[in-house]
UniProtKB/TrEMBL annotation:
UniProt function note: Arginine methyltransferase involved in the assembly or stability of mitochondrial NADH:ubiquinone oxidoreductase complex (complex I).
Highest taxon above the source species: Eukaryota
Subcellular location(s) of the protein: Mitochondrion
Organism of this sequence: Caerostris extrusa
Protein family per UniProt: Belongs to the NDUFAF7 family.
GO biological process: methylation; mitochondrial respiratory chain complex I assembly
Alphabetical list of InterPro entries matching this protein: NDUFAF7, NDUFAF7_sf, SAM-dependent_MTases_sf
Protein name (Swiss-Prot/TrEMBL): Protein arginine methyltransferase NDUFAF7
Length: 397
């Protein structure tokens, strides 16, 4: 008698259930699937477990940025900022505003160069827009060599303790921290660009917008449905690898109704309304007080479609896997940002970092440094230069 084999389906082990997964599962169970934008906000900025809130995400644990790679990069950006300020007639005061300054490496390089210019040194001040308490301390340590005392204040109407950063008690200014940098330049921290004092400004955002929340939209075209639907994130209680999964909205959503141009030809789209709001705030500030802005990011000019991804320890990582342990990002649609400020500000670009640095004559700077450096340093110098300009590295930014 022939024996029959019995087969049993063994459930696939799911990825680790982090604290954020538990919170998201509770939320989705109560209110339904969440947008990708809501998911990104929760993963990045959750007060207890957010990726950016309690860790150093730059360098060995996160990403490598151009200012960290070579002093040349800061030299070139500083020269550009100075030239634009001089062309404007050297207005006083001169505010350098960096939004999302990471560990402060770029601002530190800018102030190093500005402090060597007599005219700039007398009128410049630095204003940092940063919402992460941890990163603000790293920035202060980098820029000033010291860190302000952070007090844990017990609210009178709450039994829980809340973290309160040092604030200026003498006036109503909206800065939450103030210090003097090692280059002798005043520096202040704010939670919003709206809190920064008005004045002629050079506004810089380096690799900021690629972390802004996006709505993912998909065009439907079949026998029963036609139009746009939004990609949502739902629970996966089945055989899926993760605790979460992507689903399409059953009907139109506010994002699919209001954020898509009638002449859009792409079949999938990523839109960041919060990015649009910020560039409008930047444009309004420049229109009112004068100034200019430089936005540096991974992006495109309205040509790409599906760029939402995650990175952990320099490697690609599934955005739904172990949320809170990886950096979520999406390429910036510069065509959308330009549309948001049309008629309010002049825009140029986008161009690649390689082209920008080349136009600013970085090659001659590098050749001078290489010629005066010790031979044993040449290999590292060349590698850093290639990292900045190489299209397979950061040159494509």
């Amino acid at each position: 008698m022939e024996k029959k084999r019995a087969f049993s389906a063994k459930a696939q082990a799911k990825t680790k259930e982090t604290k954020l997964v538990q919170q998201i599962k509770t939320r989705v169970s109560a209110t339904g699937p969440m947008t990708v934008a809501e998911y990104m906000k929760e993963i990045c900025m959750n007060p207890m477990s957010g990726y950016y809130m309690h860790r150093d995400v730059i360098g060995s644990s996160g990403v490598i940025t151009s200012p960290e790679i070579s002093q040349l990069y800061g030299d070139v950006i500083a020269e550009w900022c100075l030239k634009e300020w001089i062309k404007a007639g050297k207005p006083k005061p001169w505010y350098i505003v960096e939004i999302g300054p990471n560990r402060g490496a770029l601002s530190d390089e800018l102030l190093r160069v500005f402090s060597q210019n007599n005219d700039a040194r007398e009128v410049v001040s630095l204003h940092l827009v940063e919402v992460s308490p941890h990163l603000s301390q790293l920035q202060e340590l980098k820029l000033c060599g010291t860190v302000s005392v952070v007090k844990d204040v017990l609210e009178a109407d709450d039994s829980r303790r809340h973290l309160h950063l040092h604030t200026n008690q003498d006036n109503d200014e909206l800065m939450y921290k103030h210090n003097i940098t090692k280059h002798g330049v005043p520096v202040s921290w704010y939670r919003s660009i709206e809190d920064v004092p008005q004045g002629f400004s050079c506004i810089i955002a380096y690799e900021l917008f690629d972390a802004f929340p996006i709505h993912k939209l998909q065009r439907l075209k079949n026998k029963t449905n036609e139009g746009w639907r939004e990609v949502l994130i739902d629970l996966d209680d089945g055989q899926g690898e993760h605790h979460l999964r992507y689903v399409l909205s059953r009907g139109p959503t506010p994002a699919s109704q209001f954020f898509i141009d009638a002449d859009e030809t792409r079949t999938s789209l990523e839109v960041s309304p919060e990015s649009g709001v910020l560039v409008q705030e930047i444009a309004a500030r420049i229109e009112k007080e004068g100034g200019y802005s430089l936005l540096i990011d991974y992006g495109h000019d309205g040509t790409k479609t599906d760029t939402f991804r995650a990175f952990r320890s320099h490697a690609l990582h599934d955005p739904l896997s172990e949320p809170g342990t990886a950096d979520l990002t999406a390429d910036v649609d510069f065509s959308y940002l330009k549309k948001m400020v049309k008629g309010k500000a002049l825009t140029y670009g986008p161009i690649t970092q390689q082209d920008f640095l080349t136009n600013m004559n970085i090659k001659s700077r590098f050749e001078k440094i290489l010629a005066s450096a010790k031979p044993e340093l040449h290999k590292d110098l060349i590698a850093s230069y290639d990292m900045l300009l190489g299209p397979e590295h950061l040159g494509k930014i």
